[in-house]
Automatic annotation (TrEMBL):
Sites marked Participates in a stacking interaction with the thymidine ring of dTDP-4-oxo-6-deoxyglucose: Y138
GO biological process: dTDP-rhamnose biosynthetic process; polysaccharide biosynthetic process
GN (gene name): eryBVII
Organism: Actinopolyspora erythraea
Annotated Gene Ontology cellular component terms: cytosol
Protein name per its UniProtKB record: TDP-4-deoxyglucose 3,5-epimerase
Entry-linked CDD domains: cupin_RmlC
GO MF annotation terms: dTDP-4-dehydrorhamnose 3,5-epimerase activity
Similarity comment text for this entry: Belongs to the dTDP-4-dehydrorhamnose 3,5-epimerase family.
UniProt xrefs under InterPro entries: RmlC-like, RmlC-like_jellyroll, RmlC_Cupin_sf
Membrane-spanning ranges: none
The organism's place on the tree of life at top rank: Bacteria
Amino acid sequence: MRIRELAVSGGFEFTPAPKRDRRGTFVSPLQDEAFVGAVGHRFPVAQMNHIISDVGVLRGLHFTTTPPGQCKYVYCARGRALDVIVDIRVGSPTFGKWDSVEMDTEHYRAVYFPKGTAHAFLALEADTVMSYLVSTPYVAEHEQAIDPFDPALGLPWPKTTELVLSERDTAAVDLESARQRGMLPDYADCVDEEGASTGR
């Protein structure tokens, strides 16, 4: 397992080594020993999400109100996607920074999102399947969104592709407006919540 620390504090990219033979491919996108070695605790799975998107579908930027917050472990099970993490934790040393990972079924890269970070992905092929392990169950009233086209963030969406967004994502506010409205999580609260949920 190759591990890359992302530009967002606490975020990591994991790239497993697929085993291929005449029967097909075996790959382990989440490996406990490598994960704990990088992050410092095990991933507390509460739910698995399976999302199928057509080419050009952009989902995000999404985050979960903290508390309770939500950690995510995301990989692409089919197709190809551009996955983005943004640090929206007020007081974080990397607040406002982002990183991106191209995910596909050749490399099976996965990304760990610590509590308080925002997530978006763009499907680059038809029938792209993104699978998430998440640390808390889905609760609709805890789910928040930030404008993925906020010019202050400058996220790397292609200009040549017609993008498809939900009404909620189209109407989402920019990062600064979210901060002024008190929507954003506090960095110290996120660290405390993550520690409490993992028994640290």
